[in-house]
Amino acid sequence: MTLCSVFNCNERSEKQSSSGVHFHVFPCHSKSPTRFRSWVNYCKRKNFNPGYSVRICSKHFKSEDYNQSDLLRQQLIPNIKVKVKLNTNAVPTVPQNIPCSTSNSSNLSEREKRKRKKEKKKLYLL
Ligand SMILES: [Zn+2]
Whole-model pTM? Predict the structure, then answer.
């Protein structure tokens, strides 16, 4: 079974690409240490030292992080399972949505307040 190493991401797969989510192996530490660091930092785990079997799921990568010809092939021939590869310098950049956290809910209420203010303004204008 493959598990995503990113903190708060519960993505896992029993079989490869069963849910359309792919898993990517960490870059080689000795070959690309900076990229390796960015991947580790992105996971937001304490004392995290990824080994050989550690992976990050495709939810954390943007479409431009992928090999464009692989993506195109996947779109053109949806019946065939194409293994879409990451670009050699790709780093996970998609902002993580952290569920059930206090900061998230306060953000929401802030947005609600602003929305209500806007609506009040509209009322005054009318
Ligand atoms: Zn993930």
Answer: 0.69
Per-position DSSP letters for 2-30, written without gaps between them: EEB-STT---EESSTTSSS--EEEPPPTT
Selected residue with higher pLDDT from 120 and 95:
95
Distance 79 CA to ligand 1 centre (A): 25
Ligand 1 center to 62 CA (angstroms): 13
What's the 110 CA to ligand 1 centre distance in angstroms?
28
Q: 108 or 63, which is more confident? A: 63
Which helix H or strand E contains 56, and what residues bound it?
Answer: strand 55-57
Q: What size, in residues, is the chain? A: 126
Strand-pair partners of 125: none
Distance CA(94)–CA(104), nearest Å, equals: 16
Residues 41, 92 contacting (CB under 8 angstroms): no
